[in-house]
Design a protein that fits this description.
Number of domains: 1
Strand content: 15-25%
Number of strands: 6
Low-confidence stretches: 138-142
Shape: globular
Radius of gyration: 15 Å
Structural class: alpha/beta
Number of helices: 7
């Protein structure tokens, strides 16, 4: 039996976040998250799914200074209706409210990485990246490990929507998404 797209995404996300939260105390060092959601409909899961909220709360408590990257291409912004871009902004604001610094990254090769959490640049879990439910663990082949390092470096070098404070990052994100800011 095949699961339709939305329940499948929920199940993958629920399973991976559950595994990550269970193992947070075993994770060393600094961490960052990468999410493949690039439109409002996809990013709304951060706002609607309770397990994601709990995951953000617990992860932000465990890793002060946590960073999260979103892939946002200029072409996607140009092609997206306003409501899609507007929904993406509160998802970014939610992460920032937990003290998670959000970076927008525009390099298209990072989209293929799927979503993941990285602890000391070691992939801990990936989801949304194909027919598998989720990959959890640290014994992944070179390809995901390289993707994690590339995304982390890109987030540090060329973040779109960069700023010193959450307010500045949200305003810059709104500008990147072509949303008027009060």
């Amino acid at each position: 039996m095949l699961i339709s797209a939305a329940p499948g995404r929920w199940l993958k996300s629920w399973f991976c976040t559950r595994q990550l939260v269970r193992n947070l105390d075993r994770q060393p060092g600094q961490s960052f998250l990468w999410t493949p959601e690039r439109r409002g409909e996809e990013a709304s899961s951060w706002l609607l799914w309770r397990h994601r909220f709990e995951y953000l709360r617990r992860t932000a408590q465990r890793f002060p200074g946590l960073r999260c990257g979103f892939y946002v291409a200029e072409a996607d912004v140009a092609d997206s209706p306003t409501y899609e871009r507007v929904i993406l902004l509160p998802a970014v604001a939610l992460l920032e409210a937990f003290g998670i610094t959000v970076s927008l990254v525009s390099e298209p090769e990072h989209v293929e990485a799927g979503g993941f959490a990285s602890f000391d640049r070691t992939p801990c879990a990936t989801w949304f990246d194909g027919p598998d439910l989720c990959r959890v663990g640290t014994c992944m082949d070179r390809s995901p490990r390289a993707a994690v390092q590339d995304v982390g470096e890109e987030m540090s070098r060329h973040p779109m929507g960069a700023g010193q404070t959450s307010r500045h990052r949200l305003e810059a994100t709104a500008n990147c998404l072509n949303i008027s800011w009060p």
